[in-house]
């Protein structure tokens, strides 16, 4: 059956750069281990399973440069393997504890499969899970794109040099990692402002994704809403995010992930279990261990959650996948009828970590959606943005409005009274970096001065991550987030002062280079105002 | 044009910068955020009474400089939210202080920043915040 419309599904995978090699057990590094085991490996396993049956997933995967750097970091790789082994050891004890009590024993066996699968895949690829993703991209199963260097909310950077640095460093980082150029650029937090077009095109990017009101309030008015791509005056293609399909998957209240039979995220063995028994895994403080035995149940207190039943959850996944596709088909029919028969494109954008980490059943849902489209020969084409742009007519021109996908649609989550104190230091350090890059860009510098300036540039980029203001806003790991911003700004300011005063502390510089080991080719001159760089 | 007094007072000692700096950021269609840093010399000027402790923050339309609001706050409050007319456009802010001799001096002027033209997001929040919020 010929397609009546197209579906672009974008998964944005990102974690802030967290690497503490001098600490054997650093709490916030668990974000990375959990992301790998619960989301990235299940997604790779899903792609392998689909490929085995001759099905090309047609997904778009955005991998942030910070996450890419962590996936390639040997220190984190070793810790990740220990993390998986330690969970498998705990699960062996949990298996004994559960005995034949169902459905608990069934859930323990499920977790054993998840961690064994993670161990197997890490072993198969020698710890490097970028390799299978590269292979899937080369075979045309997925399209991998990038995002800004450290996931900065770009409209909150007033200096154009900082925008250019975030975008150009990301382009270079992608090329180093994937041996090709990225066509697409994920705007962190879908945050768009018109200054970005120039730098995105200059760095070779062809398309971005926008929140729907960025398209709706664009100029001239968008004739087909978000169901057609557009292009900016300088030729950057734009895909508008579809709210309906996003909400069905995203919303914990109105969407599928909030179903009572699905696994409850917030009830964790790390808080439930007996402290003495769990001590080897808790490291002296209660923390999530990733083993969650309860289901959402309903709007009841955490203590009243009922036990999770994996079989019931998987049955519901199939219902939800069928419902999702039925709604997309109805949506396509309605939009097509309203647009004189033009075939629409529906763009669904999600944080990758939703699938598996937050919504445990998410990867199974995704696999079911993809299989149903292919196997049931539904009149819906699952395509990547590049495939779509290669086959569609020249998109109409549009100048989108300033927007983001955050709460209230603009920048309130990243700029409010809980986090606004970080902006003066971050923007001050950025300005100083630009001034120093201008001052030294043509100098014949010593090796150590160059290293110090490059590291200062790295520190400035790291200070700009959207994660720090967001964590401060939701008051989660707020102390760590605040310390990271202060630390990066202080490191940058000190390094720049040391270069000026010709007294670079090489020992400290080497420690910073080890701890913040990303963007190996970064040249501080990317922050200079010279347009020819 | 509004004349308002900011409620926020200083919550920490101002960090010393190498250059006086003023930044203006968009927050949403009706609000922007200004923040600034002072050099040690300027901190001394305020501390010694050369400048009065209360400064004025003027919000102006870019280009043209049409005033759209004015606020008063302490020099060391370091940041301030300002209202802007909805409907989009670009704005900039200027910081002024009165000297002990009664002159009003322009201390800093920000680069212009744009605000959104629209004002209605499509629906409930549908980002990662949705999941984090469950825990609040």
Describe the structure.
- The complex is a heterodimer of chains A (533) and B (136).
- Chain A folds into 2 domains: 5-408, 7-stranded beta/alpha barrel (Alpha-Beta Barrel); 417-527, Families 57/38 glycoside transferase, middle domain (immunoglobulin/albumin-binding domain-like, Up-down Bundle), CATH 1.20.1430.10.
- Chain A has 19 helices and 9 strands.
- Chain A is globular and about 70 Å long.
- In chain A, strand 6 and strand 7 form a beta hairpin.
- By secondary structure, chain A is α/β, with parallel strands linked by helices.
- In chain A, strands 1, 2, 3, 4, 5, 6, 7, 8 and 9 form a 9-stranded mixed beta sheet that branches.
- With 136 residues, chain B is mainly beta.
- Chain B has a single domain, classed as Immunoglobulin-like.
- Chain B has 2 helices and 10 strands, in the order E-E-E-E-H-E-E-E-E-E-E-H.
- The longest helix of chain B has 8 residues, at 40-47.
- The N and C termini of chain B lie far apart (38 Å).
- The interface between A and B is large, with 54 and 46 residues.
């Amino acid at each position: 059956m010929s397609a009546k419309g197209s579906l672009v599904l974008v998964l944005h995978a990102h974690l802030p750069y967290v690497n503490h090699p001098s600490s054997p057990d650093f709490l916030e590094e668990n974000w990375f281990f959990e992301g790998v085991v619960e989301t990235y490996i299940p997604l790779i396993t899903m792609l392998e399973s689909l490929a085995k049956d001759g099905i090309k997933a047609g997904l778009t995967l955005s991998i942030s440069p910070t996450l890419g750097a962590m996936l390639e970091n040997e220190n984190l790789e070793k810790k990740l393997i220990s993390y998986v082994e330690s969970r498998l050891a705990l699960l062996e004890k949990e298996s004994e504890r559960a005995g034949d009590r169902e459905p608990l024993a069934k859930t323990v066996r499920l977790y054993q499969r998840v961690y064994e699968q993670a161990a197997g895949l890490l072993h198969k690829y020698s710890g490097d899970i970028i390799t299978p993703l590269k292979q899937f991209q080369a075979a045309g199963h997925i399209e991998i794109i990038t995002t800004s260097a450290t996931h900065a909310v770009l409209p909150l950077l007033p200096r154009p040099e900082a925008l250019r640095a975030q975008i150009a460093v990301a382009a270079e980082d992608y090329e180093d990692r994937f041996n090709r150029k990225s066509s697409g650029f994920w705007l962190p937090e879908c945050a768009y402002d018109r200054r970005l077009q120039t730098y995105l095109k200059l760095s070779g990017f062809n398309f971005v994704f926008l929140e729907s009101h960025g398209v709706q309030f664009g100029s001239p008015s968008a004739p087909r809403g978000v169901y057609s791509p557009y292009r900016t005056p300088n030729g950057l293609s734009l895909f508008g995010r579809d709210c309906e399909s996003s909400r069905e998957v995203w919303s914990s209240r109105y969407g599928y992930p909030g179903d009572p039979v699905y696994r409850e995220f917030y009830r964790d063995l790390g808080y439930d279990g007996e402290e003495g028994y769990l001590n080897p895994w808790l490291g002296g403080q209660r923390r999530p261990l990733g083993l969650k035995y309860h289901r959402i149940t309903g709007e009841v207190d955490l203590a009243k959650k009922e036990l999770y039943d994996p079989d019931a959850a998987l049955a519901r996944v199939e219902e939800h996948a069928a419902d999702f596709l039925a709604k997309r088909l109805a949506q396509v029919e309605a939009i097509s009828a309203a647009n004189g028969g033009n075939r629409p494109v529906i763009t669904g954008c999600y944080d990758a970590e939703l699938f598996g980490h937050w919504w445990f059943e998410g990867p199974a849902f995704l696999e079911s959606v993809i299989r149903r489209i292919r196997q049931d020969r539904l009149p819906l084409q699952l395509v990547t943005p590049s495939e779509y742009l290669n086959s569609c007519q020249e998109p109409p021109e549009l100048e989108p409005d300033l927007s983001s996908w955050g709460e209230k649609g603009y920048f309130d989550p990243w700029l409010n009274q809980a986090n606004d104190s970080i902006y003066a230091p971050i923007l001050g350090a950025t300005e100083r970096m630009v001034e120093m890059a201008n001052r030294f860009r043509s100098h014949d510098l010593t090796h150590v001065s160059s290293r110090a300036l490059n590291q200062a540039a790295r520190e400035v980029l790291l200070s700009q991550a959207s994660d720090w203001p967001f964590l401060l806003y939701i008051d989660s790991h707020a102390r760590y987030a605040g310390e990271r911003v202060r630390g990066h700004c202080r490191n940058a300011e000190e390094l720049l002062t040391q270069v000026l005063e010709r007294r670079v502390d090489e020992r400290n510089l080497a420690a910073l280079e080890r701890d913040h080991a990303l963007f190996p080719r970064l040249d501080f001159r990317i922050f200079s105002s010279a347009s020819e760089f | 044009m509004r004349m308002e007094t900011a409620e926020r007072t200083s919550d920490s000692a101002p960090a010393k910068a190498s250059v006086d700096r003023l930044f203006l950021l968009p927050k949403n269609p009706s609000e922007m955020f200004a923040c600034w840093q002072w050099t040690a010399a300027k901190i001394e000027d305020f501390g010694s009474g050369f400048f009065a402790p209360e400064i004025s923050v003027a919000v102006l339309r870019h280009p043209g400089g049409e005033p759209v609001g004015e606020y008063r706050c302490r020099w060391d409050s370091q940041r301030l939210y300002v209202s802007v007319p909805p409907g989009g456009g670009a704005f900039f802010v200027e910081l002024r202080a009165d000297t002990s001799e009664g002159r009003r001096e322009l201390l800093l002027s920000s680069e212009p920043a744009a605000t959104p033209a629209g004002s209605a997001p499509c629906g409930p929040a549908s980002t990662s915040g949705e999941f984090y919020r469950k825990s609040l």
